[in-house]
Design goal:
Layout lengths: L3 E4 L2 E5 L11 E6 L1 E5 L7 H10 L7 E5 L5 H4 L2 H8 L2 E5 H8 L8 H4 L10 E3 L3 E6 L2 E7 L8 E7 L2 E6 L14 H13 L4 E4 L4 E2 L2 H16 L1
Parallel strand pairs: 4-5, 5-6, 6-7, 11-12
Antiparallel strand pairs: 1-2, 2-3, 3-4, 8-9, 9-10, 10-11, 12-13
Helix pairs in contact: 6-7
């Protein structure tokens, strides 16, 4: 497997299959500027960068890295993009604290036997909804707690399609990371109401059209609602 275009201007550039077994799914959005959704665990960062280049895109254009939550498989490569390309780091304030202090427990870095160095977060999101403006469009960041207190989901409307980046919809839900099933259930109801045409999930790839997106989310609502 390798990187591929999901719809025009949106790509998958990393995952456990195409960059490193530790990695979440890493997505790239081209809105004139390049926006990265999550980074992977860090061990596959050079492969992610190589995948971006192989698509004919210049990683120096990555102005923004949106981190959907604080776990190492999503944030571990952020240091490289910030340090090498000057990318601003965006995440919700409730998860930003663990990243900024380099908390190896709350980032789950200890699960992987690695140390996570403290990382400054440039934009700390607050509240239920934040909109980030770019030359070609805007990206909407929604606070969707449950997996972690500061989990966010992201969507963009492009080419007549609503593309939702709903990382780690499937969980897990562990008390040590501040998980809350009740909060998660409300978050999933919010995501269902978006009527997304395409779901880019955090570990299990993409789902389309809306019927499959709905089926995927409702499957987990049924599983954890029992």
């Amino acid at each position: 497997m390798g990187p591929e275009e999901i719809v025009k201007g949106i790509y998958i550039v990393g995952s456990s299959d195409i960059s490193d077994p530790k990695d979440c799914s890493v997505y790239l959005i081209d809105l004139g500027e390049l926006i990265l959704i999550d980074t992977g665990a860090g061990t596959g960062t050079e492969t992610v960068i190589g995948n971006i280049i192989s698509l004919g895109l210049d990683p120096k254009r990555i102005t923004t890295v949106i981190l959907t939550h604080c776990h190492i498989d999503h944030v571990g490569g952020a240091h490289v993009f910030k340090g090498r390309y000057g990318s601003r780091i965006v995440m919700h304030e409730l998860d930003a604290a663990a990243v900024e202090r380099g908390d190896n427990r709350m980032t789950a870095a200890y699960w992987y036997g690695v140390d996570f160095a403290p990382l400054d977060v440039d934009v700390k999101l607050a509240g239920k909804e934040n909109r980030l403006s770019f030359p070609g469009n805007e990206i909407v960041c929604l606070h969707t707690p449950g997996h972690t207190p500061g989990s966010i989901s992201v969507y963009v409307d492009t080419g007549g399609k609503r593309v939702l980046f709903g990382q780690d919809i499937h969980g897990p839900f562990l008390a040590e990371f501040g998980a809350n099933i009740s909060h998660w259930q409300k978050s999933m109801e919010m995501l269902l109401s978006l009527k997304a045409d395409i779901l880019c999930e955090g570990h299990f790839g993409t789902y389309r059209p809306n019927e499959r997106v709905t089926e995927y989310i409702e499957r987990y609502l049924d599983e954890y609602g029992e």
